[in-house]
Amino acid sequence: MEEHYSNPPLMSTYKHLFVDHHRHRLDIGAVECDLPVIDLAGLLDDGESSAQLCRADIVRAASEWGFFQVTNHGVPQALLRELHDAQVALFRRPFQQKVTERLLDFSPESYRWGTPTATCLEQLSWSEAYHIPMTPATAGSMSRCIRAVIEEVSTAMYELAQKLAAVLTRGLGGGEAMMTREETCFLRLNRYPPCAMGGAFGLCPHTDSDFLTILHQQDTIGGFQLLKGGRWVAVKPNPSTLIVNVGDLLQAWSNDMYKSVEHRVMANATLERFSMAFFLCPSYDTLIPSHECECDDHGKYRSFTFGEYRRQIMEDVRSTGRKIGLHRFLRRSSTAL
């Protein structure tokens, strides 16, 4: 409920965006789908043939879907449940504490809610989140156990993401792998409060601006959707798996062999939803695409750095209210968007 002391004041802040909601309903329809499921035990199998088949499945799913699920991923379910419990406790804190008190040793900007730049309902994300970088702990005002769980999950996710990224870059047929940096990677803890108005985005349609993302749907509420074949499809929640998706940087790095697919979250009218996502990122000065692709007449994107890409996205959001993304970095195209 909006009046609950722990909830951000989403309705009172953004109620003006719902004035014409009955005339401008968001597109909320979606058919349900099963993402490809890949058993990562094949990568650890003694037989090289099993590993080859597993790698081929990963490359195929990243090329055809841009999304896939993994089992036997090496991140203990008990640890994921422990993180979920800690996450619920963090979001149950009074709203004023969340916005005014520094959490653990994270920056004050770690806690975010709503969409400050939203000028219409289509730009509003009905959610709150903690963005937590992979930085060593120093001192914190909350339980060290919570910090330890967050760090353990981040480390496990980073190791898994690196293994998957190595498979995907190897699947490009040679070339150097992208060098990722722990200090630019981060974990995001999400909570999507109920929205009684219905039809609101918990998270607006977008593509991820990183190299690779690993998502854990921590409950069975549902609401996560992706764009497939021009239609929105709902992904069946399965807390026992992890969802992996290609980010913009990997799409550019692969010259569009892999797809960074648009996705969104729909807010539930009566139930809150929790999820966690890990974002694998390179250093800000990493050049994308590789030099080999830059010299290739068939290269689609001009050379750019991760830092340049982030700055352009922030500028576009400030000036237009939306992310434009890779279209800004096409090598041969009109600048009209």
From TrEMBL:
GO CC annotations on file: cytoplasm; nucleus
EC numbers on record: 1.14.11.13
InterPro entries: DIOX_N (IPR026992), IPNS-like_FE2OG_OXY (IPR044861), IPNS-like_sf (IPR027443), Iron_ascorbate_oxido_reductase (IPR050231), Oxoglu/Fe-dep_dioxygenase_dom (IPR005123)
Domain Fe2OG dioxygenase: 181-282
GO molecular function list: gibberellin 2-beta-dioxygenase activity; metal ion binding
Cofactor(s) the protein needs: L-ascorbate
Record key words, sorted: Dioxygenase, Iron, Metal-binding, Oxidoreductase
Catalytic activity line of the entry: gibberellin A1 + 2-oxoglutarate + O2 = gibberellin A8 + succinate + CO2
The organism's place on the tree of life at top rank: Eukaryota
Keyword Oxidoreductase: yes
Keyword Acetylation: no
Enzyme class label: oxidoreductase
Pathway named in the protein's UniProt entry: Hormone biosynthesis; Plant hormone biosynthesis; gibberellin biosynthesis
PROSITE patterns per record: FE2OG_OXY (PS51471)
GO biological-process terms attached to the record: gibberellic acid homeostasis; gibberellin catabolic process
Family from the record: Belongs to the iron/ascorbate-dependent oxidoreductase family. GA2OX subfamily.
PANTHER family from the UniProt entry: 2-OXOGLUTARATE (2OG) AND FE(II)-DEPENDENT OXYGENASE SUPERFAMILY PROTEIN-RELATED (PTHR47990)
Name this protein carries in UniProt: gibberellin 2beta-dioxygenase
Species the sequence originates in: Oryza punctata
